[in-house]
Amino acid sequence: MIRSAPALLAGLLAGTLAGTLSCSSAPEAPAPAPSGPPPAPSGPAPQHIDQATFKNGVFSGAFRHLIDVRSPAEYAAGHVPGSRNIPVEEVEARMGELKALAPGPIHLICETGNRAGYVAKQLSAEGLQTVVVLGGTHAWREADLPLTAGATP
What we know:
Layout: H1 5-22, E1 47-49, H2 51-60, E2 66-68, H3 72-77, E3 84-85, H4 95-99, E4 106-109, H5 114-125, E5 130-133, H6 136-142
């Protein structure tokens, strides 16, 4: 519907006056608090580890929790000795299992570091300490370091 300028002005003034006449002197009530769960706690920021330091830790047995987040097929084709497979797609469903690994750092590895970085952010949001292996299994393989074949025991 198209209104003429005088009709539009009259409508605006009527709304303004009606609003002015119905206003009370009481202050406006505060907005209600947002409902729903509070934001997830933010844990420690993910850390990163280079291949040389990672290699020394693997061979010395210093890493208690080494999680490979690649697919089961990738993991079975060759993984860093001592690692367990929890595919990125299963991380949320297996969060209780991962939380049971605390305290202490959880070292995360994938093929290049991208998926491990993604999972590290998820776990850090849950308050877990995480370490992402830079270069991932690709860099391990390129350094001609040993890989274990087969599924998770």
